[in-house]
Fold these 2 entries.
Entry 1:
Amino acid sequence: MISVAIVVLLSSCFYSDFGTATATDTITSSQFIRDPESIISSGSKFKLGFFSPDGNFTNRYIGIWYNKGGSANKTVVWVANRNKPLIDSSGIFTISEDGNLVVLNGKKQVHWSSNVSSLANNSNTRAQLLDSGNLVLHDNISQVSIWDSFQEPTDTFYSEMKVSTDLRTGKKVQLTSWRSLSNPSIGSFSAGLDSFTIPEVFIWINGTRPYWRSGPWNGRYFIGIPDMNSVYLDGFNLGEDHQKGTRYLTFAFADNDVFFALTPQGNLEERAWVDGKAHLKIYFFYPTNDCDVYGKCGAFGSCNSQKIPICSCLLGFEPKNAEDWNRGNWSGG
């Protein structure tokens, strides 16, 4: 952990809930949870259950959160029905007849499904919440994993998870921001690994437009992140799964209470539990200033966050559109 970093107490993204937790870490067709019940991973690190972001029970979601910070607060790392909330407290989280995990309302209408095809019946599957924070759907006969929440992340990247890119199709396992602090539906920003010859981490706006990049991976760290060489040495690992045709990024720090979250404003924040694991702090965030924003000053423009205005043209060039430039829109170069 970096002692010289700017440290900010994290006061947002905590949500109130007073549901009861069962002793099990498993969901089956006969062992399901109703709002406001929850389950806890075997080592008590994570909890899964129903929550409301604004605490007023208007919208209800199934999520996973750290089992820390006090019983009335939660730091949500994954949301199932993020785009289709329940509108009351009649929700159920269970295994359906086709063997998939489902979120149902009081009328048994599906608000979310793990959506795995070719499952025989519900007696052959069970879901388990692991101490890694991963929710895994198992086939009871083969004992193999057939779906897990790490493959469909929300806004949080934590230890043992892999963000990846399929080198053949370009399909990504990536983070997607919440729309706002009170609305976990998919927001404007996403973050993941780009499939260039030399990999980089990108934050995108609306899925395609670059907003920030880490700089290329040099075999040990991303060269565009200041101090990563000394800070994260041996923490991150970039690898390839040749059988699946994917390239992936994962991390493991000595302090396993470190994680990264993509905010609704497009910042990728490093967060960690401190003070006896009762509070969260933000240690780093990217982009760190306006000049870190991809293409802020456009082609042949130079950015200096210490100057006003921050953008200027390189020697021998002038603004492409002087009116836009004077209004502070420098992206045209």
Entry 2:
Amino acid sequence: MALAAALALALGLGVAACGSSSSGSGGPINLVAYSTPETVYDKSLIPAFQKTSPGNGATFKSSFGPSGDQQRAVIAGQPADYVHLSTGPDMKALVDAGLVDSNWDQNTYHGIVQDSVVTFVVRKGNPKNIQTWDDLVKSGVEIVTPNVFSSGGAKWNLLAAYGAQLKEGKSPTQALAFLKTLLEHAVVQPGSAGDALTAFTSGKGDVLLSYESDAIEAKAAGEAVDYVVPHDTILIETPAATTTGAPTQAQDFLKFLWTPQAQQLWANGGYRPVNQSVLAKNKDKFPVPPGLFNVASLGGWDKVNTEFFDPETGSVAKIESDLGVSTG
């Protein structure tokens, strides 16, 4: 009986440890994030944290990829101490799995470490004069956007398109019809926002739907692109949290990301700070689109994720299936 009890205890501990590293072991902080912020983490935020007193001696093991794939990997057992995902539903999946505390967003910034907006990335000089959402569906225009069933960025892109139609006075039925036309213009739908950017800069398509931060980073890297922030677009809010049982240094890293120093590093990397004083210092770089809206104005993530993106019953799933695009 004692042996059976010991075995049961060991198995229970093993299950509880799934998705997080062994806290207090002195090992690296396991950082798992969506694809887009890889550069700003590796080249700016992590080195800056390591120079602070709480970050002294910290090392990191990082993983970047499509947000949906990342949350599924963590649930399957990939070590994670700090997670930064693209969408609320991806974080909710970790909460539901017991890997992130349910109060993860109970702070001043509601668990959001930076913002962005959906933009149109175009060829240098904008040869097709793409300025509005209607321009995207003109004859001959080819679009690059990621696959919504792996990429959080793709969900933001389609919600931006849908919400923009509502802002223009269209009905929900008309807005959904616009999404269908938009996706019919998609020449390729890569697995992540990062892969979509690579496809575009390699020559695919006339316009890329993307995070503003990707557009800024691509221009800074010397890519032959410009970008347009449409009049009506969505505020992208990406959630971050530490996992249950994460080491103290991982928790300190999350706190560091909200400091004015780190918020300015986010801004330098093309992301909109959530610290309002830092955002104000960067207002010329990040003008507010006149028709900016958020996911809450569309009913919130619970509603839109079910209505649009459920792989079996979602309206976008039906559109993509009819177009022969994978929804798995």
